[in-house]
UniProtKB/TrEMBL annotation:
It comes from Citreimonas salinaria. It comes from the Bacteria. The keyword Aminoacyl-tRNA synthetase does not apply. This is Alpha/beta hydrolase family protein. The keyword Cell inner membrane does not apply. GO terms for molecular function: methyl indole-3-acetate esterase activity; methyl jasmonate esterase activity. SUPFAM superfamilies: alpha/beta-Hydrolases. Residues 4-228 form the AB hydrolase-1 domain.
Length: 235
């Protein structure tokens, strides 16, 4: 039995793990998801959200060491949390997510990819501190292999995304490097090019590199396959 803490990506919330949590539990694991500050049911004002506050929320949710899974943008705050308290994280799992490179914010890392599928869908909000994704483009970007019900569910829950966490580099060192880590490439991802995911995972040990034949949202399109893979990784 393993403990899993599931961390969502940009504009998402704990809601996106609705189908994965019960499958992990059926496999004998403990699993929970949280809303990062400013997401889901968390009411933190978007202007106050930072990469550090994301990491604070993750560490506050870790009563005991757990496998921490970060989706997409979630790769940055799980890395910062590992640098701050490696003893509270049994393993990091990057699910089609950004693995921080030295000196680069997530926004800068995104521009390192060979293509930029997200750019046409990004809409800056008038508040100057947040953005959103055009819902008309969300299916192709995030959910193209999901059921109509799952797409409707996701579109009803997408939220504004604070900009500051994505504009802040993650400062990582030996404490972060001491934590075991795995990467799951989503081979049909419409948001983060799979070739870039492979590049980010290139220095992971071969046995810690995995793949799913899914979109950017396997937690909705293939929750059973995702849970089984996480079960394997935990083993």
């Amino acid at each position: 039995m393993a403990r899993f803490l599931l961390i969502h990506g940009a504009a998402h919330g704990a809601w996106c793990w609705r189908d994965t949590i019960p499958t992990l539990q059926a496999l004998g694991h403990e699993a929970r998801a949280i809303d990062l500050p400013g997401h889901g049911a968390d009411t933190t004002p978007l202007a106050e959200v930072t990469l550090e506050s994301y990491a604070d929320a993750i560490l506050s949710a870790l009563d005991e060491p757990a496998i921490v899974v970060g989706h997409s943008m979630g790769g940055y705050p799980i890395s910062v949390a590992a640098e701050r308290a490696p003893e509270r994280i049994a393993r990091l799992v990057y699910l089609c997510s950004y693995v921080p490179w030295p000196g680069l914010s997530l926004a800068q890392m995104r521009r390192e990819a060979p293509t930029q599928p997200l750019v046409p869908a990004i809409r800056r909000n008038d508040d100057g501190v947040s953005m959103r994704f055009d819902p008309a483009m969300a299916r192709d970007l995030f959910y193209h292999d999901c059921s109509d019900e799952a797409v409707d569910f996701a579109l009803a829950h997408l939220s504004d995304q604070p900009l500051a966490p994505m504009q802040t580099p993650a400062v990582l060192g030996e404490r972060y490097a001491s934590v075991p880590r795995s990467y799951i490439v989503c081979e049909r991802d419409g948001a983060i090019p799979p070739v870039f995911q492979h590049r980010m995972a290139a220095d992971f040990a071969p046995e810690d590199r995995h793949a799913l034949p899914t979109s950017h949202s396997p937690f909705l399109s293939a929750p059973d396959a995702l849970a089984r893979l996480l079960d394997r990784i935990a083993g």
